[in-house]
């Protein structure tokens, strides 16, 4: 019998070593190198008796024909938008997210709603469990095939039989291939099985939606190279205690990564949220101190988001600062700016910040609302609910202009806001009649405008 061949892989970055090391020399992580068995066979193709392929030929770019048929429109508009208009044939889409966030639900919903032949492969749930889930989701696609299998060779056998237009695999970490001996979920298994799936997808032009688990740092578990191998990397995120879920593209070879899909988890599955602003602003009758509404943009869509702050006297020596849905470093920076440029003594106060709805915001235009919410809580003076904010704040306390301000103003106007605070340096090309625009240039002016 041949001697078992093993190699050492870093479980963090996927680097390969001939012997064990305490620290990976490529990503500098400690204790991540693990021995894996990699007995390789001769053939590694997805088809056992693969005929040699014709060599590819170079074509002039003008002679390459594109047809609309290259994209499959799912019935899910939010997903279509994030993907840049639908699923591209022959592409590999990796969908990552925390356990319980709804990856399997979303994938099954897509599989059931699409009017195509689909093969849904699960390594995690039995056929009857999936059927039970499908009954809750109500959609019914009689051409959706369910398979519980983890061995890629068996999956390919089923693929040849079913000849689907779309394949869903739940999840890549449960798959294993016969061609190497490492256990499922290990770096080398993930790499090999993905390579086999890519080969299948490209040769047959069948798109594959691949579900991936994430590790405790929030990255997709497996070698970093996995994200390079696939065409699209989607991240499904949200707070488990809230019902809203956000789908983002981290990488997309066929579209923009700025787009965003918003869903709400209901008892009958994920509902697409067409008008996100309405749900992100809590409906209440009276104004409360410490809340301010920001006109942000997520992708191409304007989104009104409520920011809540609580400022209170610190009980212990070191004041606490905490932020949910917002960068803590940025919060500290804004507090320092308030202290230095506007003379607000927040140094001995605890400051808590929360973006409602459990979503994360990267748009710098939210800064002004964050500062307004903090000031409002500190003064214990409510900001009228008909006010909203959209500007970035610089280190010198200056109110900076932001992109696509008119789109934000329009959204605010549409939702019935009566006043919007923006930077003096934002140039507007047309007047707005339905909403008052307050132009400010320095952080001190904000205070006078709100509470003086
Ligand atoms: P799931 O898709 O299994 O998550 P993942 O595959 O990302 O681990 O989603 C599981 C959660 O979703 C579960 O906690 C219950 C909830 N859920 C609903 O609220 N409504 C539904 O219709 C379904 C199917 C799930
Ligand atoms: Mg799942």
UniProtKB/TrEMBL annotation:
Q: Using the UniProt annotation, give all residue ranges assigned to the region (Lon-protease-like).
A: 350-452
Residue ranges of every copy of the RecA family profile domain listed in the record: 68-214
Q: Which SMART domains match?
A: AAA
Q: Which UniProt keywords apply?
A: ATP-binding, DNA damage, DNA repair, DNA-binding, Hydrolase, Metal-binding, Nucleotide-binding, Stress response, Zinc, Zinc-finger
What stretch or stretches form a coiled coil here? none
Which positions bind ATP?
A: 97-104
Question: Looking at the keywords, is Hydrolase present?
Answer: yes
Report the superkingdom from the record. Answer: Bacteria
Q: Where is this motif: RadA KNRFG motif?
A: 251-255
Gene3D superfamilies, per database record: 3.30.230.10, P-loop containing nucleotide triphosphate hydrolases
Domain comment (free text): The middle region has homology to RecA with ATPase motifs including the RadA KNRFG motif, while the C-terminus is homologous to Lon protease.
Describe the task this protein carries out.
Plays a role in repairing double-strand DNA breaks, probably involving stabilizing or processing branched DNA or blocked replication forks. DNA-dependent ATPase involved in processing of recombination intermediates, plays a role in repairing DNA breaks. Stimulates the branch migration of RecA-mediated strand transfer reactions, allowing the 3' invading strand to extend heteroduplex DNA faster. Binds ssDNA in the presence of ADP but not other nucleotides, has ATPase activity that is stimulated by ssDNA and various branched DNA structures, but inhibited by SSB. Does not have RecA's homology-searching function.
The family assignment reads: Belongs to the RecA family. RadA subfamily.
Q: What is this protein called?
A: DNA repair protein RadA
